[in-house]
Amino acid sequence: MLTSLSTGLRTRVTHKMKPWIGCLAITLCALQTSLAQTSRAQTSQAQTSNPAPDAANIIALERMWNQAQVSLDAKAVASMIGDRFINTEYDGEVSNRGKFLTDFADQNSNLVS
């Protein structure tokens, strides 16, 4: 008798809690969706609000690179490329940083002579 009484009590408590658990689950899902949409909107706005500085920096670097090559400034070229620099020439020849700088220096000495 005691067992059936405790089982009946658990069943009534569980049935009363089910609507609340459902409401809580729906509220949490709605909150998570809302936060995700807000985060995406903020990220999107941040990405589109300042494309000009990136474009200006790229153009400035391109001009510095062109000027260094035109003036045969090996030091300037070396300062603009990283240790893992890989160059691919128009004919498919691939060279790392060291070979590229050596070839650039050789090109400079051949042109100056």
Alpha carbon gap, first and last residue: 110 Å
The main sheet comes to: 2 strands, antiparallel
From the alpha carbons, calculate the radius of gyration and give it in angstroms. Answer: 33 Å
Mean of residue pLDDT?
75
Number of strands: 2
Strand arrangement, largest sheet?
Answer: 1-2
* Helix/strand structural class: mainly alpha
Overall helicity: over 70%
Order of secondary-structure elements: HHHEEH
Enumerate the spans where pLDDT stays under 50 for 5 or more consecutive residues: none
Total individual domains: 2
Number of helices: 4
Per DSSP, what share of the residues sits in E-state strands of 2 or more residues?
5-15%
Task: Please state the overall shape, judged from the principal axes of the Cα atoms.
Answer: elongated
